[in-house]
């Protein structure tokens, strides 16, 4: 008997084959030298993470309850976390809604995609959109329908046309993924009238509308009503997270939405949660004034955004730097003759890590001619130096590519 007859490899699922033949998760993260200035990472700056308060919460929890927080059933502080999240959602948590604690907002998105999508149904996304969301959707559907940004908005007319076109092709949109507040990567804010129209379109076309609210609390002006607050037809799923306002390594997120979908998501979620971390965060939230904490963060990030824009300056004629209204990022719009990958590679040669805008688009779309720069992570003095260096590099690129 030959070796081939003795040994037959097990067969992977079609989904696994697609995943292995596609780009690896995180392929967008550029390599760097030790001295490179990181303007890629969407992390909170070091002093924004309440390390001492979290350590104190963990110590108090262990002293009060011994082994309980470390057991499957966990601590009563887990229940407090859920109660706190329900209060934080306020009237947005309707009588027909359910709340599910998740490992960050991204797990909530993954579960919603599992529950809503099949290979022959579609997801509609803003373009550009959050690159890790695209990675999630590729696991569940072959049909990602982009709606391109135009003059600072994502047009509702284009959304309606995309929904109708997908239905005609026999691949109806079952999920709409939308960042209404300081959308990653563009930083755009969806106007209130468009929010109302989007909620209405989702209801008319029978699509779940997933609201990514990761940056919603980090506004520099006045907030607009969330998509969830405008949802009377029970189509909106709100994804929240403490990653941007407390600490991303805790992986505390939540989903709020109609019971039918949330029950399906809950049954698909087989990780049993994280009793210890959820209890620590519950203890932490019980001990602090969260609203004051977030107000301080808003002021700090607004200052960082202002300093970043000032330091970047006017990079070159035809390069636009929209002023952020919240969140973590600057979306620098390049000349239409410039290639985003080429510009990001040039910045890397100058010791500046930036993300090409191409990572935020579906593969079949044209280059968005933009790069994303983060003002959230570096110490303020290094942030200013980094954006000043980025401005000089863009001006040098302009001279080399008139």
In short:
With 402 residues, the chain is of the alpha/beta class.
Q: Which key phrases capture this entry?
A:
402 residues, Aspartate Aminotransferase, domain 1, Aspartate Aminotransferase, domain 2, 41% helix
SSE inventory with pairings:
Layout: H1 3-6, H2 14-21, E1 37-38, H3 51-65, H4 76-89, E2 97-103, H5 104-116, E3 122-127, H6 131-138, E4 143-148, H7 156-168, E5 173-178, H8 192-204, E6 208-212, E7 236-241, E8 252-258, H9 259-268, H10 275-287, H11 290-312, E9 329-333, H12 340-349, E10 352-353, E11 355-356, E12 370-374, H13 380-400
Parallel strand pairs: 1-10, 3-4, 3-5, 5-6, 6-7
Antiparallel strand pairs: 2-8, 7-8, 9-12, 11-12
Helix pairs in contact: 3-10, 4-10, 5-6, 5-9, 11-13
Characterise the protein shown here.
The protein has 402 residues and is an alpha/beta fold. The chain folds into 2 domains: 30-49 and 291-400, Aspartate Aminotransferase, domain 1, CATH 3.90.1150; 51-287, 3-Layer(aba) Sandwich (Aspartate Aminotransferase, domain 2). It has helices spanning 3-6, 14-21, 51-65, 76-89, 104-116, 131-138, 156-168, 192-204, 259-268, 275-287, 290-312, 340-349, 380-400; strands at 37-38, 97-103, 122-127, 143-148, 173-178, 208-212, 236-241, 252-258, 329-333, 352-353, 355-356, 370-374. The strands form 3 sheets. It has a 7-stranded mixed sheet, with helices on both faces. A 3-stranded antiparallel sheet has the order 9-12-11. The chain has a two-stranded parallel ribbon with strand order 1-10. The N and C termini lie far apart (68 Å).
